TrEMBL record:
Region (Disordered): 100-123
Residues of the signal peptide: 1-18
Lineage of source species: Eukaryota, Metazoa, Chordata, Craniata, Vertebrata
Gene name as annotated: Ghdc
One Pfam family linked to the record: GH3_C
UniProt name for this protein: GH3 domain-containing protein
Source organism per UniProt: Mus musculus (Mouse)
Domain GH3 C-terminal: 406-499
Domain GH3 middle intervals: 314-386
Amino acid sequence: MLLLWLLLLLLLLVPLLAILWQQRSRGARPCWLISLQHRVAWGMLGWAAAWQQWRLDRSTLNVGQSQQQALMWCLKKAQGSCCLPREDTDMRTFRNHLPLTQTSHTQEQESEETLPSPASPQYHGDASLQATLLGLITLNKACPEALAPGSTACVTPTSPWPCSVPWLGHALGRVSPDGAKDPRTLLLEALISPGLRVLEARTAVELLDVFVGLEADGEELAEAIAAGILGTLLPKRAAELKEALEQGPRGLARRLWPKLQVVVTLDSGGQAEAVAALRVLWCQGLAFFSPAYAASGGVVALNLWPERPQGSYLLPPGVPFIELLPIKEGTQEEAASTLLLTDAQREKEYELVLTNHTSLTRCRLGDVVQVVGTYNQCPVVRFTCRLGQTLNVRGEVTDETVFSVALAQAVGQWPGAKLLDHVCVESRVLDSCEGSAPHYEVFVELRGLRNLSEENRDKLDNCLQEASAQYKSLRFRGSVGPAKVHLVRPGSFRVLREALAAFSSSSCRPPEMPRVIRLRHLAQLLQKRVIS
């Protein structure tokens, strides 16, 4: 413990030494100071991560006791009045006094009456700290050279690491200046650093926006770099940027940063399409790593296995307090009561229910997980879908997974097309079913295809009928009309995400990407950007 305090003291002194040196030399920090800060930060990180790993192992070996302690902590820390006895509350009393409530499944909830979020704007609890510390250690083991000084750049104002510890930037060896929040400055700092090994963004959809914007503004950014906008004239680097952009999007990241190894983003709802597009185009050949899964109510699961491509996450037994609501087989209906983590069964699906001290409410998140394994006594899961992202124009209930699979199959039949993003709108939202059967309005952003033929549009409806027998039956009877596909101009979904951000109560929480839009003005926002 004494050594840990000495390391902390040294880390606090190093920045002061750096400031004094810079005032004396009026130049950049010397290499020895950068290296010293990095070594001290990693020394502290190793101690802290070892402690968190010990706590995680102990808690996952005694899950029942750990969950009871987490519940007691939430009750003791509850803000305001609490209807439960804080000292002696068992699970039955807890469930009886606090019924399940429904949290909003999307950021564009139609009702103005929204239930309190189970997570505060900042990530609290064991999960966020453990995800950050253990995630860094896991990443360093998988890519030993990736976290050397000056090898990491974050191109979004918010980091993908859930918990902001003071020495995180030193441990990662970021090239961005401390406190930099302007997205353009962050991107420029990354572009002038050809030795990057790690590229960070808060979420995959935000990284997708960065690359789309880079292609659109590449000439302007190259001129800014050549002119020395960041204090140093870099004509050679500007020429390299122009040359890399001229070769197109495929493999662009590796051309800009030849040593790049891994992309780090925080996984959350609606990110799969962005990850797929990045893998196929801009980030081809790179590994992807997410330290955690951030569900609707905050960080709820840890990623200890970066080598698993499907995204396997551990549900920890600490704070926030997690319950599992079984999903009935073959439907999206829920069972009568929740289960604790020890009761989870392999291959079964559950909706997550969260409780913490900021809002003593048992919130159903709408995020559905499937149990794929165990870590000690805790379930290891993969996230499958969100219950709020369903289409229903005639009682058919087409869920997020079914529609996404059908759309991917259809796009695969469109020559040269790569799907970047999509959303669906039920025809009633746009009043587009007058004189016709209700149907789906689908807005897509593509790369490699500028016009959609009627034959290609029909392929989506055919794929939907193959994917859903219920949808096929309604189509056969004429109760549901064919899905209508609209191609929007590049950057349209970035505009949509900016509009969605106005509905978010916190800029710190990663924005989930909705796949179903239920507000007319948001649907019309995309409708105005249709090009085919």
